[in-house]
Amino acid sequence: MVVKFRILVTGASGQVGQQLVKSLNDRQDFVAIAKSHQDLDICDSTEVLKVMTAGVDAVVNCAAYTAVDLAQSNAPAAWSINVDGPKQLAKACALANIPLLHYSSDYVYDNGQTTPYSEADPCNPKSIYAISKYLGEQVALYHHARTVVIRTSWVYADQGQNFVNTILKLAKEKSNIKVVNDQIGAPTYTPDLVQATIKILSSILEPSEIQAQYGIYNFANQGVISWFDFASEIIKISGLACVVEPVPSTAYPRPAPRPQYSVFNLAKIKHSFDPQIPFWQDSLAVSLRSPR
Question: 142 an active-site residue?
Fold first, then answer.
């Protein structure tokens, strides 16, 4: 009989959480214990510890406050989910001596450089959301040595509210759309992120002579693009009759500042875990072939 590792997935109703739960349960070596925010308040230490007593081999925290602009006027909510939540999970995982995987954001860098960010580069988060994500990852690392932080960017899935589905919707309704062309980064397709997560889980849970490497890792699909480039490719692959017009960020002022450059150096995660990292165009094509 194959031994199954029991993985607690918090934030299981989000686009990353849903994909992770499905992918774990499709395998023979893992089983997901899925907890949405309605099922588990990750800020409540008593609730978190109670879940742990059921027997958990690792925790993957997919819960996050991601409303970037709303966070500017609702800092307590962002702080609660993005800082207090990871802290409680890390402390509980430390008590149980099990690994914690936590997702963070490209927004934590934003230090003005224009070369791909490595994990050792200085962070300079500017918005409430960005600061909360930075503090959340740091507090998790502080409270539990067996923590893996995965910084990711521009996440999208086949379903749900994300950039790809928004562009598809707008392109079906309008003949012309405007998209910013001065914010540079790379998208992350949720199934690719999940497969990398499972590769890391396997590495740190399976007996091995190789020492598990905890700490911070960047992950996104390969390539460097603007949001305008991303939108243009979505329209092109979909064959929709819509013109995409490039505009500067100043054309769409937002309450929270966005990073102008968020490209990752992926060398560390490649060296440590060797996950599959497709180019962004290839993953986008796969996504657009999926039913919506």
Answer: no
- In the block, residue with structure tokens 């996104």: 220
Tell me the C-alpha distance between 277 and 268, whole Å: 13
Whether the Cβ atoms of residue 183 and residue 227 lie closer than 8 Å to each other: yes
Which of 129, 134, 156, 217 is the catalytic position?
129
> pLDDT of 183-230, one tens digit each?
999 999 999 999 999 999 999 998 765 667 899 999 999 999 999 999
- Rounded distance between C-alpha atoms, residue 118 and residue 137, angstroms: 16
Whether pTM > 0.90 for this model: the answer is: yes
Beta bridge partners of 10: 35, 61
| Interatomic CA distance for residues 219 and 196, integer angstroms | 8
Max CA separation in the chain (angstroms): 59
